[in-house]
Specification:
Blueprint: H1 2-13, E1 21-28, E2 31-37, E3 44-47, H2 60-64, E4 65-67, E5 72-77, E6 80-85, E7 94-99, E8 113-115, E9 121-124, E10 130-133, H3 138-141, H4 148-151, E11 158-163, E12 168-171, H5 173-177, E13 184-188, E14 193-196, E15 199-203, H6 209-230, E16 239-244, E17 253-259, E18 262-268, H7 277-292, E19 301-302, H8 308-326, H9 334-346, H10 361-377, H11 382-392, E20 398-399, H12 401-411, H13 418-426, H14 432-443, E21 448-449, E22 455-456
Parallel strand pairs: 1-11, 15-16, 16-18, 19-20
Antiparallel strand pairs: 1-2, 2-7, 3-6, 3-10, 4-7, 5-6, 8-9, 9-13, 12-13, 14-15, 17-18, 21-22
This protein binds zinc ion (ZN).
Zinc ion is lined by residues 289, 293, 312, 315.
InterPro entries: Peptidase_M4/M1_CTD_sf
Signal peptide: 1-18
Protein name: Peptidase M1 membrane alanine aminopeptidase domain-containing protein
Length: 457
């Protein structure tokens, strides 16, 4: 009897053999039809990405999606958006939805849709992915960002297929093709894509011309400069996607996001209509930092979150060096002095636990300083240091803090540099500013101490 029960439990708990959720998304004028095929009978299907609109903290899906199939509703249940079967019955195995593109910001998540000028629209595939629950009221208790294993929800995977003319996939295009996308935008009716030096640039046809021209020429130059000094990138043809949100608001702003293989940028504001050097610098810096991750992040990745300072600090220093080499007007000390100031405050706690503690800035700031030390030890060639990290990590595609410090010891003329860095990573410091100043000194990096007692270049 016990064996029978165990077998039964196994059958219920192991739906891995089931088909994935399949959904095709087809354009219909300015709207889209999402046509779902669900693999099992379930009374609720929740959306993995259910975070609300940033503007009013309400479900953006309920505003922009309309269910066309009888017997099922789209509801907000607790922290989740979900398809729920009416009257406790299972959700029909085929559900059709008509959706208008929602282009507003979503809390801590990717923009569902972007308008790219003319009739071009980008849709994010991750917002279509579903999980199953046995009983719909299970949805009410699921917190935002729940652990799927602990919550015992049915994860069948969701295979998304965008359909339309002039369609381009930007982001995890390989995963998308295999039906296991880690995040990609389907670009419908895309405007001009310019491809050079292994990177595609897709630009909103309404983006102010000076920004469009700068992105189109600067992006391949960054990729060219990095490839020349770092070797091949760890990813196939990535895409830079730049959207214009309009010039109604005062001032100018840029916000960005990234996915594997995609650098996403959105510009807006009246001041951005005319050439604005500060905005240009910010955009160039962002592209360079994110492009660095095609090496530090894709060619070699961190082993665990404790080692993520290697990627973020390294990307910051690569970006500073690369932008400065291409743009003589770029302020090369600003970013590094901010790093020195911030790490001097944040390294009271171990840099290795920055992610757990919700202080990711420590990874960027302290990581950039450690990278600066490695650069000095490599006779000014940080690219060479990174190239060695990539080569050493070839077997596993990962690097951890120990391996990074070993690489530093192998490069440096003395072994005095790695112990103070290790201390900041593993323990933090009671007096970070003093420890960082001492580290710069023993690395032979020139600095001064400012009025606040912070080391500055
Ligand atoms: Zn980064």
């Amino acid at each position: 009897m016990r064996a029978f029960l165990a077998l039964l439990a196994l059958l219920i708990a192991a739906p891995a053999a089931a088909e994935p959720v399949r959904v095709t998304v087809t354009r219909e004028g300015d709207a889209f039809i999402a046509d779902y095929r669900l693999p099992i009978d379930a009374s609720g299907w929740g959306f993995w990405r259910s975070s609300p609109a940033a503007s009013d903290n309400q479900s953006w899906r309920l505003k922009s999606w309309k269910v066309l199939t009888p017997g099922v509703t789209l509801e907000r249940r607790g922290q989740q958006d979900a398809f729920v079967g009416i009257g406790g019955r299972p959700v029909p195995r085929r559900v059709r939805v008509r959706l208008t593109p929602y282009t507003g910001e979503v809390t801590s998540n990717y923009v569902p849709a972007l308008r790219l000028g003319g009739d071009s629209i980008a849709l994010f595939d991750g917002h279509f992915a579903l999980f199953a629950v046995g009983r719909a009221n299970q949805l009410d208790r699921l917190p935002a960002g729940f652990d799927p294993q602990a919550a015992k929800v049915g994860d069948y995977g969701t295979a998304i297929e965008f359909r339309g003319r002039n369609l381009r996939i930007a982001g995890d295009a390989d995963g998308y093709r295999k039906g296991e996308s880690a995040g990609a935008y389907g670009l419908f009716g895309v405007p001009r894509a310019s491809v050079a030096n292994g990177i595609a640039t897709v630009i909103d046809s309404e983006l102010p011309k000076w920004i469009a021209d700068d992105l189109t020429s600067f992006t391949p130059r960054v990729m060219g400069a990095m490839t020349a000094r770092l070797g091949p990138a760890g990813i196939g043809q990535p895409t830079v996607l730049a959207a214009w949100e309009g010039g109604d608001r005062q001032g100018a702003s840029m916000n960005g996001g990234t996915l594997k293989g995609l650098i996403l940028m959105r510009f807006e504001g009246q001041a951005a209509l005319h050439e604005l050097p500060a905005l240009r610098s910010m955009a160039r810096w962002f592209i360079a930092h994110e492009s660095s991750h095609f090496w530090l992040g894709q060619a070699v990745d961190y082993e665990s979150a404790r080692d993520s300072w290697i990627m973020e600090g390294g990307a910051d220093l690569l970006a500073v060096r690369t932008v400065a080499a291409l743009d003589p007007t770029f302020d090369r000390t600003k970013v590094l002095n901010e790093a020195l100031a911030d790490c001097s405050k944040l390294a009271v706690k171990p840099v290795g636990t920055a992610i757990e503690r919700g202080e990711p800035r420590a990874n960027y700031a302290c990581g950039a300083i450690f990278s600066l030390v490695a650069e000095k030890a490599s006779k000014g060639d940080f690219y060479g240091f990174v190239r060695n990290l990539i080569a050493a990590g070839r077997a596993t595609h990962t690097v951890n803090s120990d391996q990074w410090l070993t690489a530093l010891d192998a490069t440096a003329s003395n072994l005095s540099l790695s112990p103070p860095i290790r201390k900041l990573i593993e323990q933090g410091s009671a007096r970070p500013a003093d420890d960082i100043a001492a580290l710069l000194k023993s690395a032979g990096i020139l600095y001064k101490v400012d009025a606040k007692g912070l080391p500055q270049l």
